[in-house]
């Protein structure tokens, strides 16, 4: 499905463990004000923002007039609807705070919090059960890339998380390919050549089934346009280069330009 079917380019950011409530409020208010004044920034773009849980409800309030342009997401949610899970939040709680998307399986969750493929499968189903989009993150470490096993590694992560879903459920899933060696403060930006084979594999296996396949990993304003031209890439999942509002707006501008051009090629 993805970009070929929707003519939309996905541009989103997770703030991770950054921003106080006041900082989140300023960012979201500025984003809403800008999009109301410049709706062309989301022409052929589906924007999304994933703040920390503490800011979900406030960001939702600030974005209420641009909800058609910006999806609000949560960085994590438990697979159970309620219960004795100290420190967790449920999908219904995230939805109650305004979230319409749940990030699942980020490499930091897998490495530091023991999130397995089986856990990602439970969380994907919980999100779908409550009408939210799962954003499934997958990616390989450098050792797997160097062994030339990246495609099978990431496909196994996707297969494990999405096994048993029907076509309607799959059509609401977003997949974000984020090679571990390319993400974070010390990540090395991947080249288009390095990303071609993983995206070709994802496209063959899931491109016609899921809502979109995104790329994340040292994305910035200088490489975004090139990354969007990689076959199979339906959008970008951005970290620190979108933590400032100006940076995110510039990425939306790049995405809109790409989305309009792609739509024009489809129409032509």
TrEMBL record:
Gene3D superfamilies cross-referenced by the UniProt entry: Aldolase class I
Enzyme class, first EC level, given as a word: isomerase
Subcellular location: Cytoplasm
Principal place of residence: cytoplasm
MF GO annotations: isomerase activity
EC identifiers of the protein: 5.3.1.1
Matches recorded under SUPFAM superfamilies: Triosephosphate isomerase (TIM)
Annotated InterPro entries: Aldolase_TIM, TIM_sf, Triosephosphate_isomerase
Reaction catalyzed: D-glyceraldehyde 3-phosphate = dihydroxyacetone phosphate
Biochemical pathway: Carbohydrate degradation; glycolysis; D-glyceraldehyde 3-phosphate from glycerone phosphate: step 1/1; Carbohydrate biosynthesis; gluconeogenesis
Record key words, sorted: Cytoplasm, Gluconeogenesis, Glycolysis, Isomerase
Binding partners and assembly: Homodimer.
Similarity section: Belongs to the triosephosphate isomerase family.
The protein's name in its UniProt record: Triosephosphate isomerase
Organismal lineage: Bacteria, Bacillati, Actinomycetota, Actinomycetes, Micrococcales
